[in-house]
Amino acid sequence: MTPPPLYLARAFRQFDLAATFRLFVAFLAISAITAQPVAAQSILRDAETEELFRDMVAPLVEVSELDARDVEVILINDKQINAFVAGGQRMFFFSGLIATADSANEVRGVMAHELGHITGGHAIRFNEGLEPATGITILSLILGAAAIAAGAGEAGAGILAAGQQAALGKFLAFSREQERRADAAGARYLSKAGITGKGSINFFKQLQNYEFRLGIPQEDSYGRTHPLSGERVSLLRDVYQADPAWDVTPDQDIERRFQRVKAKLLGFTAEPNATLREYPESDQSVPGRYARAYAWHKSAYPDRALYEVEKLLASAPNDPYFLELQGQILLESGNPEGALTPLRKAVKLTNNQPLIASLFGHALVATEDEQHLAEASEILKAAVTKDNRNPFAWYQLGVVYSQKGDKPRAQLATAESALLQRNYPTAIRSSQIAMAGIKENTPDWIRAQDISLIAKTEFERNGGKRRRR
After folding, report:
1. What does the alpha-carbon distance between residue 165 and residue 269 come to, in Å, rounded to a whole number?
2. Residue range 376-404: average pLDDT?
3. Selection from 239, 247, 211, 216 nearest residue 100 by Cα
4. CA distances (Å), origin 4, targets 10, 157, 160, 383
5. Is 316:326 a contact under the CB 8 Å cutoff?
6. DSSP conformation class of 156
7. Where does the pLDDT of residue 291 fall: very low under 50, low under 70, confident under 90, or very high at 90 and above?
8. Confidence band (pLDDT; 50, 70, 90) for 355?
9. Mean pLDDT across the stretch 87-102?
10. Which residues pair with 72 in a beta bridge?
11. Which of 330, 392, 323, 334 is nearest to 361 (CA)?
12. What DSSP character marks residue 360?
């Protein structure tokens, strides 16, 4: 995280005080990223996955005494084996962690740990670790600059290097202590929820093997933000084994659903060849067929993808997520009319689940049949009412308004979609066009005004640039 000493020596032999300041700023920037690593990676949204995550985390949230309505698990498309909390009570899980976990219980162990961060207020208390480190950095900066100004360039460089190292060590020690506290809290939550800690131990062992493969020294965790996985296993094993829940059989329904979602996620995110190696044709299980359906769809073999889905539906004709996939394949392979029947049924079976409903609305629009516009409008309005954070649904609703000749509300829907995608110039422009065509002080006019103000504020905060997703 800090430049090597050789770089520091070269920089300060030239008495480059600007470079000194840049190093200080770089430390603060890296610290900020460590504290709040909300990534530019894309967020993955899937109705089945989000329902599973809610059910997995619910008993842990209950015993933590948080409000289940405030805790959210968000999936990020990233191969790293990682999870974190950032702002409020939201957990971010990387797709690489789901792919690496062998069981739902392993992921539940991580969820319990992240809940420990939330209840401990660790994101909020980040400055408690940063301030002492910053103080050390500023002091070393002053002393080093004074030595350089006095003509002792080598001594000044040494002071600066030592100060940077001390500051970083202070911050990392604080971070490791937070991780240990989150581990302890996670163990308590698993115990109270009656969930075995075997999954947590197994996952840490997987991480330990990963560290071995990367050649990470295993002597101690100095210089790391987290304790070594081996240290965590040693500390937690006795705690978990003494717990009454140690020998409790994991929830088999949750495990079955997890294996489906894991296969589905691999099929969606991985290269098709990799998916087909993991789930070859000889694998006739539900996860195997699920993964291959996505792989064949991505490979532009809709017939083979539909064959796998038909086999899935033969065993579970009313499974809404199999119906959703069938509709998606038909729609995206150029048959929106054929997609309507399975998607309409999936929407009904899930009580208008908004992500599935937005796909159904898209299929209705894609038929280019004006007779479907009224149904599309009804479906998409219901979808954004239940979940207003779906830019795709807002975009489709804008298309419906446009085709019906309601240009102001088409612009309002476009503004909603653009704001969610952090495309602030488009959000500003579209919201202002909407305001010009909507009666003043009506709910839609007020919403357009709100979007305009929010987008302008965010645009200025980001230096007049569109934020990267």
Report:
1. 39
2. 96
3. 211
4. 10, 12, 12, 53
5. no
6. H
7. very high
8. very high
9. 91
10. 90
11. 392
12. H
Which H or E element spans position 84?
Answer: strand 83-85
Q: How far apart, in whole angstroms, are the C-alpha atoms of residue 157 and residue 15?
A: 9
Give the SS3 label for residue 43.
strand
The radius of gyration of the chain's CA atoms, rounded to the nearest angstrom, is 26
Give the whole-angstrom CA distance, residue 237 versus residue 252. 23
Alpha-carbon distance of 167 to 161, in angstroms, equals 10
For 243-264, what is the mean pLDDT?
96
- Residues 61 and 89: their CA atoms lie apart, in Å, by 11
Instruction: For residues 294 and 305, give the distance between their C-alpha atoms in angstroms, rounded to a whole number.
Output: 7
Q: How far is CA 194 from CA 62, 248, 253, in A?
A: 12, 7, 16
- By the 8 A CB rule, do 458 and 418 touch? no
> Residue 294 pLDDT more than 80?
yes
Distance CA(318)–CA(309), nearest Å, equals 12
pLDDT of amino acid 117: 87
Q: 271: which 2 tokens? A: 């290269």
Identity of the residue numbered 434: A
Which single residue is written with the structure tokens 């208008």? Answer: 352
- Give how far the C-alpha of residue 446 lies from the chain's centroid of Cα atoms, to the nearest Å: 31
Nearest C-alpha neighbor of 447 from the set 467, 461, 459, 430: 430
- Phi, psi at 303, each rounded to 5°: -65, -40
- Let me know: does 374 contact 394? Beta carbons within 8 Å: no
Rounded Cα distance between 358 and 381, Å, is 9
Contact present, 200 and 109 (Cβ < 8 Å): yes
92: three-class secondary structure by DSSP: strand
Instruction: Say what the pLDDT of residue 282 is.
Output: 97
Output the pTM of the full model. Answer: 0.78
**According to the model, what pLDDT value does residue 359 have?**
97
